[in-house]
Amino acid sequence: MRDLRALALLRARELRNRILLLGRQSRFKILVVTAFSVAFWIGLYKAFYTGFSFLHAAAVGYSFGDLVAAMFHVFFLALTVMLVVSNAIIGYTGFFRSRETGFLLALPVRPQSVFLYKFVEGLIFSSWAVLFLGTPLLAAYGRFFDAGPLFFPLSLAFLAVYLFLPAALGALAAMLVTAYLPRTRRGLLAVVSAGTMAAILAVVSRLLALKGTSVPDLKLAVEVFESIRFSRHPLLPSFWLSRGVLSLSEGDGRDVFFFFALILANALFATVLAHGMSSRLMMRGWFAVQGLRSRKIYGERGWADVLAEKLLFFVHPSVRRIVAKDLKSFVRDPVQWSQFLIFFGLLAIYFLNLRTFAYEERDLFWKNVIAQMNLLATALTLATFSSRFIFPQLSLEGRRFWVIGMAPMERERILGGKLALSFTCSLVLSEALIGLSSGMLRTPAALALLHAVALFGICLGLSGLAVGLGALYPDFREDNPSKIVSGFGGTLNLVLSLLFVLAVLTLQAVPCFLYYGRWVLGPAAFRWVVAGAMAGIGILSAAVCLVPMSLGLRAIRRLEI
Amino acid sequence: MIALQGVSKSFGRKLAVDGLTLEVAPGEFFALLGPNGAGKTTTIKLIAGLLRPTSGRIFVCGLDVQERTIEAKRLLGYVPDQPFLYDRLSGLEFLSFVADLYGIDGPEFRRERDRLVELFSMGDYIHELIESYSHGMRQRVVLAATLLHRPKVILVDEPLVGLDPRTMRLVKEVFRQEARAGTSILMSTHILSVAEDFADRIGIMQEGRLVALGKLEDLRRRAGAGGGLEEVFFRITGEDGGAAGESRA
Q1: Helix axes A303-311, A317-331, angle to 10 degrees
Q2: Is the Cβ of A401 closer than 8 Å to some Cβ of chain B?
């Protein structure tokens, strides 16, 4: 136990020092982060509350309670799957790839203690966002159903205990796969990817079997939830959580106690099991990973160089080489591209299935509504993408900055390369996605064009914002992009990105709702208003790109490393 | 080749380099010594243009590093103390990347690449990802990348740390050949025997200032010590020379 105590003390001291350092940071920074966090939480709470109200009003003739229960089952199941995958990825990196683990294993520390130390770190790292997103949902639900003052703290306790379960399952999966399954990382990835894809395809195939063309909207929604009945399987941990929370709101004390005990017992069992197995699996997995050595032969130039040459013909050759280098590094890092694939892959699957719901047969009002929601989803995914992948790009050069920092070229070109890569990749991907959405919905050409223009502006603005702020707030000491984005600069970038996206979407949505929705505008007026909206989007996007870029350029010129 | 005129650099209140004036001639092998925190790495980074001096001017081959940065960088090669590289590139891809940044392509690149791969015996692993390289293999890639554009001035920060004897010997030999060919070499090192054996002149820094400068004989005279560089170094820096002497005895 002495080793575990020493590790716990280490973390406690680190935490204390971080808090002390926080006191030395600019009060403005702390104020901005706190204000945005509170505003974000309140915004989410309002959105969830409005969603419950809307559903309640729409659920005439159906059991509102059943509908909410079905939503909870699906929500918590999806959350559980994401948490297991996220914990498995973080666990793999923490248990077997981290330098700190190597350092600790060289000390007289038991492997189980290292496991527990890294497990708690991964649990906090992967789950804080769940609490941040889950608490406004639970608060809104509790208030809407007037569930009493104890509902919120008790449901929070449910969620907090529950988080150990997917974390332990993810950690177990990471250890078992690394220790026993294929010995190369490609094999490991194939197993994880195949499992995820199989699960997604299973859900999609169920949805594809729907016949939603001739049923009212709500009936269709009920039909969708029916088709994913498996989320209500009593052996699924997510079912215990949703049943527990629902019982809490219903005041059913017996059920509350039963499901809480069930979750607690299983969370403890899974954690103890993972801890017990770690005594064998940690070292076995560690040796397996250390024994890996990619013997793959790489040529002097590959597809990334060709792609950069073709796509970025308009930029300086040295910028293309930096882009090609970034592309190769990205594609060869499974932790990076697997998250990227999940981001955009799920959107593509959804857009491909739009006709399953017969949305293309709806009237223009609904087509516009669905198209707007799709644009919102794509733009928000882009904002997350640019915050997660583009913002940390310059920081990641960090200790390697001597390479490009010593090259005989203006430093501004480094930022130019990052901007070109971000803009081109996000534009190609998002325009393809929104083109798919417009095609599947058979939206009017004007709407499709407006959305394409809006996305062009969004890609430009988000890229400039992420690259510029990335240079303004770099973190050269950190090699982990997830940790870089969780700093002040990353948070500011995410918040500004979301505000910018909402501003552009509002600019383009107003004329669309006026024309396709209520028909307030005539066709001629609509054309003028759309032209005005496009001009507005152009000016706003250019400003959001240029202002942070010019600040970033000034910062990189002055950069000392 | 290298000229520093009254160069100072401070980080906040801490003065890391204090009024440094120094010249390194073409073909000269100059060793910069000093205890930890003396300002050696800061000096090298100032010459490399990775840091800006608080005051003073720095020239490389007559070019002011602050004003004609790009031209100066074409003539500079820099070997950092830690070989941080792009792990997801192969050694060959990295060399190709660096060559592109310096505008070296076609037959010239292939000729230099083949020469350096052979010189540093990297043929067995140059096509594999850098993440699988050992420290010594990484350092060889860094050295090859530094020499690729045939720099006139090479700045080397602790290049021998963690290298095996064979690689260490190779690195020393490469630098000696480069110096013979007219390249100026400024090397910061803690390995005093390297400075003793190879350096034309030696500079000793302490607390940001150059406290001794000259050939080994000059430094011996100044320190009033007859032995090797180690004794001279401890006498000049006033560090734990007594203990070192006792332990040797």
Answers
A1: 130
A2: yes
Tell me phi and psi for residue A108, to 5 degrees: -75, 65
User: A218: how many CB neighbours lie within 10 A of its CB?
Assistant: 15
This model of the complex carries an ipTM of 0.72
Nearest to A402 among B71, B78, B101 (CB): B78
Those residues of chain B whose CB sits closer than 8 Å to some CB in chain A are 45, 48-52, 70-71, 73-74, 76, 78, 80, 82, 84-90, 92-93, 96-98, 100-103, 127-129, 131-132, 145
Topology of domain B2-75+152-246, CATH: Rossmann fold (3.40.50)
Rounded to the nearest 5°, which phi and psi values hold at A88?
Answer: -65, -45
Q: How far is Cα A35 from Cα A45, in angstroms, rounded to an integer?
A: 15
Distance in angstroms (rounded) separating the CA atoms of residues B5 and A452: 57
Categorise residue B83: left if φ over 0, alpha if ψ from -120 to 50, beta otherwise. beta
Instruction: Give yes or no for a contact between A174 and A126, defined as CB atoms under 8 angstroms apart.
Output: no
Q: In which region does residue B49 sit, left (phi positive, over 0), alpha (psi from -120 to 50) or beta (all else)?
A: left
What confidence tens digit (pLDDT) does each residue in B110-121 have?
Answer: 999 999 999 999
Helix-strand-coil split of chain B, %, nearest 5: 40, 25, 35
CB A223 within 8 A of CB A244: no
Q: Are A227 and A207 in contact (CB under 8 A)?
A: yes
Q: What are phi and psi of B22, to 5 degrees?
A: -160, 145
pLDDT tens, residue by residue, A517-556:
766 777 788 888 888 999 999 999 999 999 999 999 999 8
Listed by start position, the domains of chain B span 2-75+152-246, 84-150
Asked if A103 is an interface residue toward chain B (Cβ–Cβ < 8 A), one would say no
On the question of pLDDT at A334 being above 80, the answer is no
* pTM for the structure as a whole: 0.73
Inter-chain touch B86–A403, beta carbons under 8 Å: yes
Note whether A48 and A140 are within 8 A (CB). yes
Between CA A4 and CA A198 the distance in angstroms is 39
Q: Which residues of A touch B104 (CB under 8 A)?
A: none
Report the distance separating Cα A492 and Cα A468, nearest Å. 12
Q: What backbone torsions phi and psi does residue A145 show, to the nearest 5 degrees?
A: -95, 5
Closest CA to B156 of B85, B83, B236: B83
Q: Within 10 A of A205 (CB to CB), how many other CB atoms are there?
A: 10
CA angle A503, A505, A508 (to 5 degrees): 110
Q: CB–CB of B89/B130 below 8 Å?
A: yes
Question: Cβ(A420)–Cβ(A403) under 8 Å?
Answer: no
Rounded CA-CA distance A512/A520 in Å is 10
Closest by alpha carbon to B197, among B226, B166, B228?
A: B228
CB contact under 8 A, B88 and A410: no
Residues of B in Cβ contact (< 8 Å) with A294: 128-129, 131-132
Q: How far apart are CA B75 and CA B1, in angstroms?
A: 10
Q: Residues A40, A346, B89, CA angle at the centre, nearest 5°?
A: 95
Is A240's pLDDT higher than 90?
yes
